[in-house]
Amino acid sequence: MMDDSAKVDMPDVMITPGDGHPFCPKQNHSVRIRLLEKFINSNSWEQFSNTPDFILAEYLVDCLEAYEKAVTSNRQWHTGRKETD
Fold first, then answer.
1. For 9, left (φ over 0), alpha (ψ -120 to 50), or beta?
2. CA 64 to CA 10: how far, in whole Å?
3. pLDDT tens-digit profile of 9-29?
4. Is 54 exposed, middle or buried (0-12, 13-18, 19+ CB in 10 A)?
5. Phi, psi of 40, rounded to the nearest 5 degrees
């Protein structure tokens, strides 16, 4: 269970299940980066590597999108069908 100290206040960012989920396919690359950039910055995670938060956010989004593509390709290969929107 997460305690209140672990919550991050991000008032202009919607983080809810479904269409509003931060990594919903309907959101574009730059929105995903902005979400992670705010999260990284609010937790000062950039200080460990002395790397700007926007660079870390872009790297993480690229990794997650590549993983999403790999999972989709794997599912298509195993089922023999493409997913449709």
1. beta
2. 21
3. 544 544 444 444 445 556 788
4. middle
5. -60, -45
